[in-house]
Amino acid sequence: MNKVSIIVPIYNEEKNLKKCIESLINQTYKNLEIILINDGSTDNSKKVIDSYKDKRIVAIHKKNTGIGDTRNTGIAKSTGDYIMFVDSDDYIELNYVEVLLKSLNENKADLAISNYYLDTPSKTYEIDLKNLKTTSIKEDEDLLCKINLSPWNKLYKKDLLTNNNNKFPYKVKYEDVPFVVEAVIKASKISFVPNYLYHYVIKKSGETITRDERIFDIITICAIVEKKLNQINYVNKTNFFVKLLSYYLKNSRYIPNINLRNEFIDAVYIYLKRIDKDWRKCSYLKQESTIKRVIITHKSLLKIVNKLKK
Fold first, then answer.
1. Residue-level pLDDT at 1
2. Using CA atoms in the order 87, 219, 223, 188, what is the torsion angle rounded to 10 degrees?
3. Looking only at Cα atoms, what is the longest distance across the chain?
4. What DSSP line would sit under the chain, residue for residue?
5. Alpha-carbon radius of gyration of the chain
6. Digit-coded pLDDT (tens) for 278-299
7. Which of 26, 218, 237, 309 has its CA 20 to 30 A from that of 271?
8. Which residues of the chain have pLDDT under 50?
9. Would you state the pLDDT for residue 206?
10. In the prediction, which pLDDT does 132 show?
11. What is the pTM of this model?
């Protein structure tokens, strides 16, 4: 019976942590290694972790080094045949491990991906990764534009990660993206599970994140990913980067410093133009509404809209 290692990075989540852990220890699939890594929390997260006596739990308490390095610690400490990640403020359906593992094994895949729930204080939404089937990057060149680029809602063969030295980048934000991209492009087969099994929790209704200078890390991340995609001659590179960066263009209004905001917008446009001088004509943008498409593709207009919305 294969062992599945579940890696949970934890930082100041005492209020939500119990619900997360309970969803793990009560899984229908029992051969688990539950790695709870306290990343230097300053609240009572350590107390919550240590209150559990389940023999499958591996508790690690360390100084704060960030979520990417914490997940890397979990990978290094894991002894399972398979690995999955669960964020400490999220939780999973009780058959999550069982269903994903069954799909992965039946399809002889290296990676399994499921649909998921988006839990908000007012409503739970079903997030459907449309048009997915058991496939690979070679069979579906648009695959990276169809999936979410988070490490959760996925089950990985450990060998897929360790044999390719796939780790989360250190001391850089948005570290999920290159990790997931590397797993997808190196997987010989990826199985898709249509069930909604993972609960991604938004704590506050209408919650927004104020962006600071670390927003520029997404450009660094794109450069890392670009090297990976060039290695496989990925033909759908324009769609991928437009999808990824248009999200940050839409949310650039949350950068309170106007000069920083405009510098970031300029940097994104420079990057996209370097990727493809005709990026505004890519097929991904055709999925956007006319208004959004016009705003995203016109730098001066975007800056004006951001100023008005502020």
1. 81
2. 30
3. 59
4. ---EEEEEEESS-HHHHHHHHHHHHT-S---EEEEEEEES-SSSHHHHHHT---TTEEEEEE----HHHHHHHHHHH--SSEEEE--TT-EE-TTHHHHHHHHHHHTT-SEEEEEEEEE-SS-EEEE--TT--SB-TTT-TTHHHHS---SSSEEEEHHHHHTTT--PPSS-S-THHHHHHHHHHH-S-EEEEEEEEEEEEP-STT------GGGGHHHHHHHHHHHHHHHTT-TTHHHHHHHHHHHHHHTGGG---HHHHHHHHHHHHHHHHHH-TTGGG-GGGGGS-HHHHHHHT-HHHHHHHHHHH-
5. 20
6. 999 999 999 899 999 999 999 9
7. 309
8. 205-208
9. 40
10. 86
11. 0.94
Distance CA 308, CA 310 (A): 5
Write down the residue that tokens 């939500």 correspond to. 16
Residue reference for tokens 């994104």: 268
Residue 128 one-letter amino acid? D
